[in-house]
Amino acid sequence: MKRYAEIRRRSQTKSYLTGYGLSLLLTLAAYWSAMARPARGWLLLLLLAALAVVQLAVQLRFFLHLGKKSSPQWNALVFSFMAIVVFILVAGSLWIMKNLNYNLMNMPPSATEKTIIKDEGISR
């Protein structure tokens, strides 16, 4: 029994180190792509998105151990929930930033100052 635990621990350590190495390599590849710009425009965005998807797959496999368990339904449920949460966070953040940008761009600077002074209760 002790021998099995030792083999399992080594296997997990090897899995974590492999995942760490791949994640580090993919992060450096994305950083290099953004800094050196081997491509321009949409091609650069597609390259970075592809690297992000590959890194997501590496992290799901090596750190969250999705795909190793015998219950694929549970893995699909966890992955679906994670995708929904990420979508809500990203879409909500973009929506808020767009709304703020629209409201600030359509308001003259003097009106912005007046609104801030009124909201904060500052009297001159």
From TrEMBL:
Question: Some GO term, biological process aspect, for this entry: which one?
Answer: aerobic electron transport chain
Localization terms from the record: Cell membrane
Keywords from UniProt, A to Z, are:
Cell membrane, Electron transport, Membrane, Oxidoreductase, Transmembrane, Transmembrane helix, Transport
Write out the GO MF terms: cytochrome bo3 ubiquinol oxidase activity; proton transmembrane transporter activity
One GO CC annotation: cytochrome o ubiquinol oxidase complex
Q: Which residues cross the membrane?
A: 16-35, 41-64, 76-97
Q: How does it sit in the membrane?
A: Multi-pass membrane protein
* Superkingdom as given in the UniProt entry: Bacteria
Mainly localized where?
membrane
Keyword Electron transport assigned? yes
Q: Which NCBIfam families match?
A: CyoD (TIGR02847)
Q: Which family does it belong to?
A: Belongs to the cytochrome c oxidase bacterial subunit 4 family.
**Protein name, UniProt field:** Cytochrome o ubiquinol oxidase subunit IV
Q: Which organism is it from?
A: Candidatus Chaera renei
